[in-house]
Design goal:
- α2 packs antiparallel against α3.
- The chain has 2 domains: 99 residues, Leucine-rich Repeat Variant, CATH 1.25.10; 66 residues, Leucine-rich Repeat Variant (Alpha Horseshoe).
- It is mainly alpha-helical and 191 residues long.
């Protein structure tokens, strides 16, 4: 069945007598449109204009296909920190386990904003093995980085993060203390 035939079927099903079928057809059409948009998005990724590239990167967040990951991973090598940061944000939102290794490397990125985006992105993954990487950031001078790492530790929910977060709750910086307290409130209690 061609793409066009499939599209026509879904359009026809938008008029089905059952609401559940109409809803499924609507979702299927949206999914199909994301594939059709992929070529246009890839073209935007290759633009010489930063704004178009960033817009294309964020458009990949709505594409439900594993085909987006090679493009996003490749963008992590870009010389432009804004491009790397945008790709990291989308990878974090998608939280695909196979992107973890590439993301963790950017905790040591030369750009402070990329490091902050990476710490935030890691909080979207359901993998407590990330906790030591994030805990290692809690002693950094960059206030945003430390707060991002604390928030992500809360999201990960590793009870082993409690002690470093308690220490962080006494930090001189108010935003860091807030992040630490909120993270602690998300952690499960040890028995």
């Amino acid at each position: 069945m061609s793409l066009e035939q499939r599209r026509n079927l879904f359009i026809e099903l938008l008029n089905d007598s059952e609401e559940e079928v109409r809803a499924a057809a609507t979702a299927a059409l949206e999914h199909l449109e994301s594939f059709q948009d992929m070529a246009q998005i890839i073209e935007g990724l290759n633009s010489d204009k930063r704004g178009q590239r960033v817009k294309a990167i964020f458009a990949l967040e709505n594409v439900k296909s594993v085909d987006v990951f090679p493009h996003l991973i490749n963008l992590l090598k870009d010389s432009d920190a804004d491009i790397r940061g945008a790709a990291i944000q989308v990878l974090g939102a998608k939280a695909h386990p196979k992107s973890l290794q590439s993301l963790v490397k950017h905790l040591k990125d030369p750009s402070p904003s990329v490091r902050v985006h990476t710490a935030e992105a890691l909080g979207h993954f359901d993998d407590v093995r990330l906790a030591p990487y994030l805990v290692s950031l809690l002693g950094e001078a960059d206030e945003q980085l430390v707060a991002s790492a604390a928030r992500s530790l809360g999201s990960l929910g590793s009870p082993d993060s409690a002690e470093p977060l308690v220490t962080l709750a006494k930090d001189d910086r108010a935003s860091v203390r807030v992040a630490a307290v909120r993270a602690l409130s998300e952690l499960p209690l040890k028995g």
